[in-house]
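Protein modeling request. Please complete all fields; requests missing the sequence field cannot be processed.
Requester role: graduate student
Desired output: 3D structure, C-alpha cell encoding
Chains: 1
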Amino acid sequence: MTTFDTDVVVIGAGPVGLTLANLLGVRGHTATVLEARHELIDYPRGVGLDDESIRTLHTAGLWERVQPFTVPHHVVRLVNGTGRVLATNNPRTQEFGYPRKHGFVQPLVDKELAAGLDRFPGTTLCFGHKVVGLEDRGDHVLVTAARLDAEGETVETVTLTARYAVGCEGGSSFTRKWMGVQFEGKSPSTRWVVVDVADDPIGTPSVYLGADPRRPYVSIGLPQSIRRWEFMLHDDEPTERCADPAFMRSLLRRHVPDPAALKIINQRTFTHHGRVASEFRKGRVLIAGDAAHLMPVWLGQGWNSGIRDATNLAWKLSAVLAGDARDTLLDTYTEERRKHASDMIDVNMAAGTVMKMGRVGGTVRDIAASALNLVPKWKSYFTELRFKPMPRYATGVVVDQATLTPGRARAGFKRGGALAPFTDSAGELSPVGLQFIQPRVSTADAVNVLLDDVTGDWWTLATWGTDPTAYLTEVDLAFVRRHRIKLVSFMPETQRVWAERRYAEAPAPVAVVGDSTGALKDWFDVRACGLVVLRPDHFVAAASLTRQAPRALAAVRAAASLTAVSVPVPVGELAAEGASS
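Delivered output (581 residues):
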C-alpha cells in the first residue's frame, strides 16, 4: 500500500471545508485543511441555519458547541413599503428533530467548527497556505501550496499527497478553475450594503424582508444582541458612497432614531450571484459549497446548501477511503447535489424579484398577496416554507421502489421513472430519495432521545413492527456485518419490551426502538413499505415490503457501488426470492 500525507486535502477553511473535515474525522479518516488567510473570516455573513444542517452538526458531534450561538424559530415576514405584512414564513414542524429555522452568528459558529478539528489527531488546519497547484496522478493527488507570511509574501512552497482533494474556497475557487468546468448562471447587477450593529436598537427577534419600491431592505434580529440591515443600492449610487457615514445614516434613519449613535461592527457591499458548476467532480478532485454554486441570500440557503454538499460528500468519501465502496460512488455526488442546488438558486432568484418590484409591480404584488392570504391552502404554502425545494434524490444512491415490490402491491406505482411515486389517500409519494424523519424515541438504554442517537451515522436497515433479520439470508447477514449496517426494529412503545426479549435470539444484533410519539407509525402508515434502508446521511436509499429485504439490500449494494461478500449459500437459499448472492 502507498502511504500518503493525508486521506483528503480540503482547500478552504470556510464552514463547508471545516464541516467536511469534521465529518471525515468522526469517521476515522485524516484530513488537512489549507487556508490562504491567516485566520478565519471574522465578519458575519450567513444568518440562517436550518434543521438539516443542525442534523449534520449533530452527526459531527458539534451541535452542543454551536447551539449557544443560535436562536430557534426564526420567523420571516415579507412586508411592503407601508409595513403591511404580505406573507409570513413561520414553520413549526420538527420532523428532522429540530426547529426548521434558526438565526445564527456565523463567525462564532465557524470558530467552533475549526476547534472541533482538535479532537482528531489526524486532522490539521493550516492557515497561510494558498493552493497554487493540483495534479491528479490516478491513484492520488498532489497539492502544491505557497506558505505565506503576514504580508502575503511566499515563504516557501510545500506539497502534500492525498487520496482526494476537495475545493471549498469560495466563488473564485482555484479548484473549480483547475477542473475547467462551466460556472453557469448569472450575476444580477444589483448591489446591496450590509450593516451589522451591536446592542440591537429595535429588539424584535426575527426577520423582515422589506419589499419597499423606494428601497428594498432586510432587517434581521440575530443572537447576542446583533441587528443586521441590508439595503439595496440604486444604479446611480456608486459603491464608494457607502463609505460616507452621512449616506449610511440616511439609510438607517427610516428604521431607527439617532443612527449616528449606533455601534457598527460590520459593513460590507456585495452583489447577489446565481451560478452552479456543470460538474462537481473531476477524477480525484471535487468541489463543494460556494466553489460549486453561488446563490442569493434571500432564503438564507447559501451556508446551508454548502453544508448539504459536505454531508453528501463526506459519507461517500468515507466509504471509498475505507474500502467499503468503489470509487464510482463519488460520481453520484454531482448527480445528487447539482439539481437541488440549481433548484434552490431558482427559488432564491424568484424571491429577489418579488423583493425588488417597482411601484406598479409592487401594487399588483400586494393585491395578489392579500388575495392569497384569504385562502388557507395558499397561506400555509408560505407559512410552512413549502416553496423551499427539499432535497429529493431521483438518481444516485437510490433504488426505484417499483423494482422491489412485485405483484398486486405494485399497482400503486408508476413505472418508468427513477422514483416510483406511489400515491395514497394522503397524497404521499414514495419515500425513496427523501430524508427520513427524526422523532424522539425510547430504547432499553435511553428514554426520549433523538432517533439519530440510536441509528448512528452509517447505514441502517429498519422495519416497522417486525424482526429485520426475519428474511435475511446468510449472505445478507454477512453483507450487513461487512458494511456495519445497523438493524433496527421500530415498535410501538407498548411492544418494545416484548420485542427486546424476542429479538435477543436473532442471528444478528437488533436495536429495538420504541415509537413513543407515534411519529414513526404515522410515517409508515401512509407509505407502501414496511422496510427502509437509510443511507449514512439519513436519506432513504430503498423502501420495500419486509419480505423484500434481500432485494433491497442487493439493489442498494449496486447503487452505492458497495463491495460484495463471498459466503457459501445453501442451494435452497439460492432459489429463494431476492437472494443477494
